[in-house]
Amino acid sequence: MLTIAENEMINLEESFDFEINKLTAGSNDVEQNDIFFAIKGFVTDGNKYVKDALNRGAKAVITDGDPGMIDGRIHKVADARRTMAKMSIAYYGFPSAKMKMVGVTGTNGKTTVTSMINFVLQSLGKKTGLIGTNGNYINKRFLKTEHTTPDAIELNKLLKEMIDEDVEIAVMEVSSHSLALCRVYGIEFDIAVFTNLTPEHLDFHGDMAGYFDTKKMLFDSLKRIGAKGLQPAAIYNCNDEYGSKIVSGSEAERIAYGFGCGTFTAKKIEMDINGMSFEVLVPRNGEDVDRIKIKTKLTGKFNVSNILAAVAALHSLNVNYKDIIKYIAEFDSVDGRFNRVKLNNGADAIIDYSHTPDSLLKALTTIREILDESGSKGKIITVFGCGGNRDKAKRPMMGNIAVTNSNEVIITSDNPRDEEPMSIIEDIKAGISSDNYTVEEDRELAIKKAIEISGKGDIILIAGKGHETYQEIKGVKHHLSDRELAEKYGK
């Protein structure tokens, strides 16, 4: 019987008397001398496939459930996911201990913040790894991914590949699911960044308290003294109500950023649809400056916040302000994050991944600010839907936000998954009491209609899917790109 204490370091050679081929949680992938983890998932229970895994040649099975059989190769543990994480770290040679690790968590902004940090570091000639929603990169080599954060085996395998390719700094999005499901358990983070916390994934976490507690795990894992030549840092948004709370148990240095508060504070913001500039009050820390001027191709106050988070993280990585200023000015918006498409009728389309109430409100607020700053009388036309098999409580909230902050709204289908699109749309309509909306279930036709009713100076927000190039219906992903459709009908 294998027993692994909560804080025990795993020695695989002492735990098993055979040469391990690989670790896997997929019974169909099992080969001779593999260790199979019988994980209870959302769709099925790995314990149902223990016999099959043994027949395929697994030399050991790790489980915290009931496989329905007795066999000397089956080892019971208290938490199979946590054990899988610890064994993966050991199997791949403790890769996160061999490079600097930056983790970014929060409801919104993770992809932009991680991409910006990575861009600046690479521009400085650093060898980097990037893990997140839009894919994984080892230096500039792209690796497609299905999840924001891979499972523990795949994550540590990926980090080992980074070490093999001399990566110095890995920057990754850390989702709440990855924390709750022990995908990042045992990873040695040096810097953790918190962007914000608004309702999302409550179908999984239960309530905001559960969502918050899960995110807080990242900051609680930071050490007081680093072993990689860095002072560990817990960087947080002081404008968010959860900001100071999320770092309250962290032993690392606490660094705040925000508007009117924080170690890094934004002032004098000027913006239009092409970009913005602003000042940042900064700590000197040996540099002969107490404020810097940021110019960026990004726009919107939410992106000011994202940039502040990146600046704070980069400074903690010992990047000087001169280089931060230079390369942030060169950074382009991330695919699917407030991307502008110029239309031939004089209107603009904005492709954005805003799929939560907070991100939708921020996108629409930014568009209103852009129109007001320019003195334009243009209309805001919003096209959006909500995903199926996800938190239903946000649907009426997003319906209300859309009609309240837009002149016209076209409610359509997003990724309905296993739900009926019109059922989702009815949930959205439940939060609407005005009549400035229409329904067009077909997303392509909804985008076409929005462009047809737009005119010079108008801005169309096409929200929800961003970088995605598919629409998931009944388990099948059909090609669909909001950007391609905007360009097609905008000619």
Describe this structure in words.
With 491 residues, this protein is α/β, with parallel strands linked by helices. The protein is built from 16 helices and 23 strands. The strands form 4 sheets. Strands 8-7-6-9-5-10-11-12-13-14-15 form an 11-stranded mixed sheet, with helices on both faces. The protein has a 6-stranded mixed sheet with strand order 16-17-21-18-19-20, with helices on both faces. The protein starts with 11 loop residues before the first helix and ends with a helix.
Short overview:
The protein has helices spanning 12-15, 50-56, 80-91, 110-123, 152-164, 176-180, 202-205, 208-220, 243-246, 301-316, 321-330, 357-374, 394-404, 421-429, 443-452, 482-489, and strands spanning 23-24, 35-38, 60-63, 74-76, 100-105, 128-131, 136-138, 141-143, 169-173, 191-194, 233-237, 253-259, 264-272, 275-281, 291-296, 339-342, 348-352, 380-384, 408-411, 437-439, 459-463, 470-473, 476-479. The protein is an alpha/beta fold and 491 residues long. The termini are far apart.
Rounded mean pLDDT is 93
Report strand %. Answer: 15-25%
The SS-based structural class is alpha/beta
Largest sheet: 11 strands, mixed
Query: Measured on Cα atoms, how large is the radius of gyration?
Result: 24 Å
Poorly predicted tracts of residues: 1-8
| Helix fraction by DSSP (H/I, runs of at least 4) | 25-40%
Q: Given the C-alpha coordinates, what overall shape results?
A: globular
DSSP, total strands: 23
Distance between the termini: 67 Å
Strand order of the largest sheet: 8-7-6-9-5-10-11-12-13-14-15
Q: If helices are DSSP runs of H or I spanning 4 or more residues, what is the number of helices?
A: 16
